[in-house]
Amino acid sequence: MELTTLLFYFFSLLTIGSAIFMVFSKNIVHAAFALMFTLLGVAALYVLLFADFIAATQILVYVGGILILILFGVMLTTKGFTDNLKTLTTNLRPVSVVMTLVAAGMIYVLLTTTWPVAEIAEPEGTITGLGTLLLKEYILPFQVTGVLLLVAIIGALLMATKVKHQQ
Amino acid sequence: MLSDFGSILLFMIAGVLFVAIALFVSKLVRPHRPNADKLSTYECGEEPIGDARIQFNNRFYIIGLMFLIFEVEILLLFPWAMVFQDLGWYAFSAMFVFVFLIFIGFIYELGKGHLKWDLPSPAVPEYVEGVGVVERDIRTEDDEFESDGGLTFK
Amino acid sequence: MEAPIVSSYIVMAGALAVLLNSAAVVVYVERRVAAFIQNRVGPNRVGPFGLFQPLADVIKLIFKEDVTPIYGNRTLHTLAPMFPVITALITVAVIPFGDGLFITNINVGVLFILAVTSLGVYGVTMAGWASNSKYSLLGGLRAAAQMLSYELPLGMAIASVVLFAASLSMVDIVNSQLYWWHVFVNPIGAIIFIIAAFAEANRTPFDLVEAEQELVGGFHTEYSSMKFGMFFLAEYMHVVIGSMLITTFFFGGYHLPFAGYYAHLLPEAGTWLKAMLDIAVFLGKTGFFVFLFIWVRWTIPRFKYTQLMSLGWSKLLPLSILNFAVIAFILMLIHG
Question: Of the residues A27, A30, B111, C77, which has the fewest C-beta atoms closer than 10 A?
């Protein structure tokens, strides 16, 4: 078995395992750190797909930004270290019927599709291609992203401040 | 490309191993004599009062949000910085529009005072004729935050 | 002379060893230079000229008892010191020490460094929270906010360098300084980067979050023994890494000033002589910046937290964006 395949299985296991741990964990801080390992595993999978810029972006934005915000929120608002999340399951029977049908459908699709299996040639310089594409074909989505970021700034600031009401 | 990242992975593993070995060696040789004083929290030599939670101030969260948005902007500037010389003035002005949009957000943030980290004005006691000593709060009128600079405990 | 064979494992082990030892050397150098600035002698008992002082410090730290607060979160308390050390160590993987002397040359070296810097925030946040102490928590939060705020001007200064190099690979950035160093064509970016590097390393004048007079040691109040040793080591490694990055981005890396103009006088690329020359030049420049870090620490008083944050957001960030825009415009006029 090649080293690349081995690494792929390792990082996939890391990602999925951390995600399962995060979903079923009763301690919210442990769940936040499991989320960090999930996101790091996804970044490693991007690297295995030769998408180095996206991997760096994933770490910078998700792990270095969004997860920090989640950690701030979690660490500073829990009422104690032994705060256990209440996880309860309801409607077990109808949900299990529906999920079995969905799983069966997905497994059927997985097994009967003809997946194109080909060796990806290592691309030369992903970032120059990305830059050129961004500014030539996808220039409108690029500007819309700018507007979206502006809306995000204004919205976040509006929601995060409490204005003192006149009495 | 993958072998390059493989080297980085090896380096990461070496770093983790170094730290783990250092901590393990330390654990073997150091003494372990806990007593109640040593295990309690340090509060300048006094007994700790209350538990360890502070009043969470909004400003830290706002800093995180702003950081995230500007980080995305900087990340989108990198591919452009690599190719802009070959693409002419149209692409250049497109990027300028993008940066200008984000800059508007920054000006809004600056203008609304979210980046104002100053301490609140103190209450100043002064002597008023016929009344006595009065504490006048000289906080400015347009301070819309309920909390202070996040620099005291509540 | 034949080309030197640099097997990557040897280079890796060498780089790790060099970085760890350089942290110990910087500890000693800091105490001696601080003593020199303050008109006293500094450590001179342990070994000749006190050179074994860092070794004595490490041995002392290993043998100290580890006092962990009982109500804190033990797992996080132990994990937290690992983050600063590991992030400092893996930054070395992309820095070129000489012609062909690097551990790896990935296409996104610059982004890798930024990503690793942003992971450093976790160390201080976890340490502050897991210690179950008001001082630690507040110190950790403030340190995290400070590091987040100064990553933005850092990123913009690096982006202004990428404008010249047209590549995100560190080796290309160094090679683009063969004729003119970036500090000559982009001085404002250099100044912004140096200030942001000071803030990221939590060094004076930005060391409010770990100053003893302010917060009893900030986020590392409740740390002792080797875990504190890890934070201590990580801080000095960040000083060394910061100096290496300043050298690589703005001061030509391993190139002599204006080396492209007299390249025929220098030894050929790929020979042992050139390798040694490169390493000597690189270490010399790095040493100068380490000295600058120490010099600034013992000369300038520290900022208040409010001054620090307003400097980062209101002054450095708009200045760095403006610098980037102006340089892009000028380059477009020249080449467009």
Answer: B111
